Amino acid sequence: MDPLSIALVGVLSISIGFLLASDKGRRGLELALRSLWLHKLRSFLSMLGIIIGTSAVIILMSFGEGSEKDVLDDIKRLGTTNIIVRSVKPPEDANSNMRQRVATYGLTYDDMDFFKTIPSITRMVPMRIFPQETRRGARGHNSRVVATTPQYAEVNELVAGQGRFLNEEDEAQMNNVCVLGSETAKSLFPFEDPIDTSVKLGQFAYVVVGVLTDRMPTGGTGGSQAAEDFNHDIYIPLSTSRGRFGDRIMIRAAGSRSMEKVDMHQITITVQDIDKVRPVGSMIREMLSETKRHPRQDWALTVPLDRLELVERTKANIRQSLGIYASISLLVGGIGIMNVMLATVTERTREVGIRRALGAKRSDITFQFLVETMVQTGIGGILGVGFGCAYVFVHALLHSMPQFAFLFQQGSPSPILHLPSITWSLTTAVGVGVIFGIYPAMRAAHMDPIEALRHV
């Protein structure tokens, strides 16, 4: 728990302890609860704004916490010591309508050879990515073929639920083997074990050596890093891809087709030390910016470490903004409380006059009305906390159950209860009671006792 939350808990605990420790405080609490119970509906309606505001703070902060966790997990999954270099089709090629033209762009094997000369680089994982229908008898599945090396599974934290991932022998011998994503396997093999059976990619058959477990899709971390859905992929060795499909890739879409010549669509580079990530990234950027190597801007570089630090720096600002937006409801609820208390003061004018005539001081009247307001907002805050926590719990539970997936948008974050927001909202609710209860309490205390006794 952060220091501010600890301080708020301390203030709230001391206030409650003071009320319970003194006879005056206990008597005030008893009278306040009795007054609320006598006017149950009015009390509930006046507390409704506080209930909604408190629960809104908790729910919004919990969704913000869940979204932040998803983004941070995506970035951390990319690796803080990794540098990702991707091929990007230049605009003139992306907008071209020339069907027979071969679009040549992106990272080359020469680029990869240059990367190998940088001493701080410990690992490189190249990828070729292209769409291809995968067939198993009469069944077909539109998959994303990922031609890569065995280290790809380690870099992207992929786990084989059945069989294994690609190995060095597959790459060295250009074996016709493949590993299926979980959704691809379900589509092609709904009722049988896919291991050691074959699927067809184009004209060639590939033996299935592994099936991956379900993996949450990444959301993409900016314009230079695309989102990935690993569950619909099919993985083959990079050497096999080059030998079977060649350097040119045929892409068919919406009745048209185009040809591309791309050596590698992406290279994930792992650097030896986190302190060397940025220098190596700058070195790679300068090399790729050379006109002779890449006359067009047909590449993009992503440093996950930069994005991680940026997100962590903005977390506090996002949380503060969400808290301010949700706290507006608490202020609106406080105004409602003040209106009700002003009406209560008018209604209890004769009671105030009798108490003053019996010797009650102005401070006693002020204290009594303040306690009633604080009890009202405190109970509303507790009910709001209960509703907000229950909503977060139920939403997270349903989000985790596949049978309720239709209720949520794909990729939507699951809320994570933000514990400090409970302290903030509850303390703010009580504070609202003090702020908006002062004026009605002072108005009641400064009544003329004689005029108050004449009130009917």
In short:
With 456 residues, this protein is an alpha+beta fold. 54% of the residues lie in helices and 18% in strands. The longest helix has 44 residues, at 304-347.
What does this molecule look like?
The protein contains 15 helices and 13 strands. It has helices at residues 3-21, 23-38, 40-78, 91-94, 109-115, 152-155, 168-173, 182-188, 238-245, 277-288, 304-347, 349-357, 362-399, 419-445, 449-454, and strands at residues 82-87, 102-104, 121-136, 139-148, 160-163, 177-180, 198-201, 204-212, 233-237, 248-253, 256-261, 266-271, 299-302. The strands form two sheets. The chain has a six-stranded mixed β-barrel. The chain has a three-stranded mixed β-sheet with strand order 2-11-10, with no helix packed on it. Mean pLDDT is 79; it is low at 221-225.
Q: Strand order within the widest sheet?
A: 3-4-9-6-8-7
Q: How many distinct folded domains?
A: 2
**Amino-to-carboxy terminus distance:** 53 Å
Unreliable sequence segments: 221-225
> How many beta strands in the DSSP annotation?
13
Number of helices: 15
Structural class: alpha+beta
- Cα-atom radius of gyration: 33 Å
Major β-sheet annotation: 6 strands, mixed, barrel
> What is the H/E string?
HHHEHEHEEHEHEHEEEHEEEHEHHHHH
Helical proportion, percent range: 40-55%
Please tell me the overall pLDDT.
79
**How much β-strand is present in the residues?**
15-25%
- The dominant shape is elongated
